[in-house]
Amino acid sequence: MQLIAENLSVARGARLVVAGISFGLKTGEVLQLTGPNGAGKTTLIRAVAGFLPLAGGALRVEGGPDDVPIAEQCHYVGHLNGVKAKQTVAENLTFWADYLRGGRRGDRARVDRALDAFGLTSLAGIAAGYLSAGQKRRVGLARLLVADRPIWLLDEPTVSLDAASTGILARLIETHVSAGGIVMAATHIPLGVSSPQELRLGGAAA
Amino acid sequence: MSAFLTLLKRDILLAAREGGALGTALGFYLIVVALMPLGLGPDLNLLARIAAGVLWIALLLAALLSLPRIFEVDHDDGSLELMAMGPLPLEAVAAAKSLAHWITTGIPLALLAPVLGILLNLDLAAYPILVATMLAGTPAISFLGAIGAALTLRTRRGGLLLALLVLPLYVPTLIFGISAISAALMGPSGSEAAFLILCAISLASVVLGPLAAAAALRVQVQ
């Protein structure tokens, strides 16, 4: 499968934030988006996730299911974690597991594996409102593992993570792409994955 | 279990766990209705005559207080944009959240109304039709209210704007809710027509509300 952007332009208000970006991402590839603040990293990722309309160009997935919109083939981890303060960590992840998989239930083992992957098992029964920023981030990232989606869109995923968790994330990204996934991540610090592609936004203009 | 029911169940559980929103709405309803006899004087005939109208208007205002919560929390913590990428279209997301609002706020308010009717010397014959019209009319309040809640999502202190947008939409529900009660007091079979129109308004709102709310939500997640 392949995620292809051709001459992609995205506007915010009257300003063209992303102009004429092209890339092709094949199965097994990691794309690191870099660039200064305001270069359009978040805008590009949110456009791929389907939140922002395209001002020009085309975006398509080849080799995937044709009848599923691109947004439904993507996991998105943005600046907000989508974590409910009043629910426990396990309830949060169980909801997303059920919801993202179309309401099919009963995959508790999968939620447990996701908790375990991010070292959250001991926090599973605690209301998410009591977690620290980094712990909430780990819950948000654990969502990547509770439902199968081939494309991961990560917007500064390492914000407020400690060094150990950043390492865990890097290993999970490598596992995901080696299993046939695609990862697109906006980041200021290197993710620590081997041989990522890099797309620098706004560099020439700045 | 479909994603729709998963979302509905989560919203009801969260509302039950937070509790504060429902308590505020019920408390507000009680206070507004309790103030009426104090302001208007102890004229029992006057109170009985205006009871149905007061109960309906106070219910609209109490429900209005709780409307922003339909989407606000999910928008603020990022859940809404994740739902937009989920298997449900945003129309169904809006419908599930409106339905959860009706179950957790509309039904309790409708069930509190007959208790508050005692404070206003409501005619005994009016109790069954009062509860019936409120149960039939409150879905319109939740589903039309979702439109306003979605439109004012990113507005700071959008509560007042929400009231301006939504209260005019409630006028038909109010008119037919009250006329069904008045007609029932006139004669045994008079209220049927008004009650059926009230049901029709609610059913139309259940269809149109989520469509409009989803269109507003698409703009809000940009």
Notes on the structure:
- The complex is a heterodimer of chains A (206) and B (222).
- By secondary structure, chain A is an alpha/beta fold.
- Chain A has a single domain, classed as Rossmann fold.
- Chain A is built from 5 helices and 8 strands.
- In chain A, the strands form 2 sheets. A 5-stranded parallel β-sheet of chain A has the order 5-6-7-3-8, sandwiched between helices. A 3-stranded antiparallel β-sheet of chain A has the order 2-1-4, with helices on one face.
- In chain A, helix 2 runs parallel beside helix 4.
- The mean pLDDT of chain A is 86.
- The longest helix of chain B is centred in the C-terminal third of the chain and has 29 residues, at 192-220.
- Chain B has one domain (3-220).
- Chain B is globular and about 55 Å long.
- Chain B is an all-alpha fold and 222 residues long.
- At the A-B interface, helix 2 of A face helix 1 and helix 5 of B.
List the helices and strands and how they pair.
The complex is a heterodimer of chains A (206) and B (222).
Chain A (H helix, E strand, L loop, with lengths): L1 E11 L2 E12 L3 E5 L6 H8 L7 E7 L11 E4 L11 H12 L7 H10 L15 H14 L4 E5 L7 H16 L3 E5 L10 E4 L6
Parallel strand pairs in A: 3-7, 3-8, 5-6, 6-7
Antiparallel strand pairs in A: 1-2, 1-4
Helix pairs in contact in A: 2-3, 2-4, 3-4
Chain B lengths: L2 H16 L1 H21 L3 H23 L5 H5 L2 H6 L5 H28 L9 H25 L7 H8 L4 H16 L5 H29 L2
Helix pairs in contact in B: 1-6, 2-3, 2-6, 3-6, 3-7, 3-9, 6-7, 6-10, 7-8, 7-9, 7-10, 9-10
Describe what is shown at a glance.
With 206 residues, chain A is α/β, with parallel strands linked by helices.
